[in-house]
Input
Amino acid sequence: MSDYNAEDVRNIALVGHAGSGKTTLVEALLAATGVISTPGSVTKGTTVCDFDPMEKELLHSLDASITSFDAHDKHVNLIDTPGYPDFLGRSISILPAVETAAIVINAQSGIEPMTLRMMKAADNRNLCRMIIVNQIDAPEIDLAELTEQIRETFGAECLPINLPAEGGKRVIDCFFQPSGEGADFSSVAETHSRIIDQVVEVDEALMEIYLEQGQELKPEQLHDPFEAALREAHLIPICYVSAATGAGVNELVEIITRLMPNPSEGNPPPFLKGEGADMSPVTVDPDPGKHAIAHVFKIINDPFRGKLGIFRIHQGRITAQSQLYIGDARKPFKVNHLYRLHGAEQIEVPEGVPGDILAVSRVDEIHFDAVLHDSHEEDHFHLSSLECPVPLFGLAIHPTKRGDEQKLTDALHKLESEDPCFHVEHNATANETVMRGLGELHLRVLLRRLSEQYHVEVETHPPSIPYRETITAPAEGHHRHKKQTGGAGQFGEVYLRVEPMERGAGFEFVDAVVGGVIPNNFIPSIEKGVRQVLEEGAIAGFPMHDIRVTVYDGKFHPVDSKDIAFSTAGRKAFIEAVEKARPVLLEPIVKIRITAQGTAMGDLAGDLSSRRGRINGSDSKSRGRIVIEGEVPLAELNGYDARLKALTGGEGTYSIELSHYDTVPANIQKQLADAYQRAED
Output
């Protein structure tokens, strides 16, 4: 039996920008609670969470890592996440496993890009949030100003729950026993009053006691309204620590164990039941006596230990002898071994309760985002989809050695199964396999894994740009397909019209045939012919989007009409209509965010302009840095990483995300169309 229950569990994800000190903070928490004797060092490669050789080499987390500690009769699961924008998907993907996202901010660097993105992602997931300001003893920092910046950026509901003192050498509690003095800014009494005022606003009865009767409230009275304020995002507490010295770490442990929500106190996980348009919300209860339901939020393919599926239990118990179904599978698998993770270490445990984060190994069918359950009553359960960024950085790859094609395919599929923001696609037109990720570092790390873990050497080159085709005007098309071969012939005649739809609307096929001029059984064949052109393109060989096709008339022959005849007629009628509908090519436009020293501003602006880009704004940061935000066609970013390093002396970094698709200039469209026509000829 487990020595704790679901009410004793706390699940915390440490998220934030690279360099904010998340991994060092995990070490401090583990040391403070007796899990390890002394904190490890990122620079020495001795931390619990950064155990991968590449993480030790780069001195940064590259993937999410899980550990836990026990304190104050509570069991706390910690997830340390990477802070590079290139690994944003790996940070977002763990959010369904926790009730609380702890956004860690470097007191010297302030609010950085990943701070903003992870705060937004946690808000979208309806998680309780807290902010941890780290490195409060660093020189030349203004914590009062940083605190105001946090409140201006994220809202007035962000309030300190403790305060730094003696230049960040210690921290004063402002909630449980607000009697200290000597805070570096503000006062304990004022901070205590502000956070109590914020909490009681969600409980009218308690507010009356506090305001009208003037009674001092005890922490026990505030527990339930505090949880409600966290759930409603009416309160986001700010804590101050120095992970390097340990200042504020014990206070942070107390806040986590006494104030952060357990599985029944956080917002319920957004489970759905059904498929497609029939999906509807369903309640999952953290009751250990009900059917077991768990969600797989991380996959690791280990060459020695096989596939490892890491999951969060949301309902029921799972034991080392449980029989679990994966999704709507008919056949269960047996849990032979159940593990709790401590960095790279797997600790076997007999069972898990709601809220536990555990793992099973060597189950080939398990996959990312799978729902595990022990009863067919929970078939077709899903968690609502994550909003992960679109992977835009691409490299076309092929194996160096002939005969390694299948080996490369298998390795890419394993890497793809682990990372929600790594996609592999095959461009049939260019006959190339393309791996896409969130940045140059993202792909570089994956290429090293191909070489070192899967022993596949590859060659790379820039991929084709994922252009799209669409139309800008309505038009009509007609084709009669008639073929006589001596026996039964082929006959099908189709009239259709095409109309442009809004960007991002996709494709719509409308059957407006009346009077039986085309039998219903041939309509899917016409759609099949149309979809063939959608996939292959009509003007330059790129997929077509945002088009409505309406079939409204035609003819058939009772003997000669066949599926292939109407498929051919539909395809050629569609091509004719597209040619009349002023077709255009669309190219992906990306939002670009460049961070560099302010002295490089002029060079960066000029270079971006030469790439058909534009600057939307800039923002000055600490230590002379500047952040430039703009938009640029993805096609113009080939080789930009090297150019950025040349312009900034190797110090500049950038990240991109898809903004929208826009029409390519006429000269580029002509070049692409001519090249496609030559290839067809």
The chain has a mean pLDDT of 92. The longest strand covers residues 583-597.
